[in-house]
Amino acid sequence: MTQPKFVVPHTVLFRSAELLLVDRGGDPYVPMKPVVEGIGLNWKSHHTKLSSGRFASTMVEITIVAADGRARLMSCLPLRKLPGWLMTLHPNKVRSQVRQEVLAFQNECDDVLWIHWHKGEERAKFHAPDLQQAADFTADYLTKCRQAIVDAGGTLPPWDAVAEHRIASGMAALLLRHKRWLVTFHENGEPQLMSVPQEAAVFTPEKMLSWIREHDGAYQTFLPELLHAIGDRLHAICEVPDF
């Protein structure tokens, strides 16, 4: 009899939940029970929906070794399908106590898991606070825009706080996703986040010389500009001021 293949999962901390990621044939899968319960929803009812609805064909059962060392069979969804499932949850149709969790999972959870899968745990931990900070900033900006309309004598349409949260988080995700960021810290410890171009790099003087010399280093169209800049700098250094 063939023994079942046990899988040791990656644990990903997200908000107050411990989510899991497992490797199945080189592809990331997400055990769904921790996700559903992490949101605050009933696992039994959602497991029935997952097993019989449009995600049934992609659900697989994987034997996973839990933190206590015991092996358990868990229903897993491919990570690429998780955003689609999350969007089937309607924040306005769930209990008010879990509404914010639904919104947070919809806006951040799949990104955090995807980054963890590709970049490792530390990058994933860093990403979620950035998203929240950007979402808070965007929400504050929306509040100021509404106040400016009121101050100008305008009338605001009815506003849905749930919609505001989704707009702010969605804009934050668009701002942060698929970009590179440089994090610096002031002397007082305050962090600063700055977007940098995809082709940007950090150079020491020695690294700069190596980058220029290498065949696959500085692109050819840049070299004449570099030579021109060097000439201007040398001319400025060597120029004798008139008295």
Please characterize this protein's 3D structure.
With 243 residues, the protein is an alpha+beta fold. It folds into two domains: 10-196, no CATH class; 205-238, no CATH class. Helix content is 48%, strand content 18%. It is built from eight helices and seven strands. The chain has helices at residues 32-39, 43-52, 82-86, 99-119, 121-151, 161-176, 205-213, 222-238, and strands at 10-14, 17-24, 27-31, 60-65, 71-78, 180-185, 191-196. The strands form two sheets. Strands 1-2-3-5-4 form a five-stranded antiparallel sheet. A two-stranded antiparallel ribbon has the order 6-7. The longest helix is centred in the middle third of the chain and has 31 residues, at 121-151.
Q: SSE layout and pairings?
A:
Layout: E1 10-14, E2 17-24, E3 27-31, H1 32-39, H2 43-52, E4 60-65, E5 71-78, H3 82-86, H4 99-119, H5 121-151, H6 161-176, E6 180-185, E7 191-196, H7 205-213, H8 222-238
Helix pairs in contact: 4-5, 4-6, 5-6
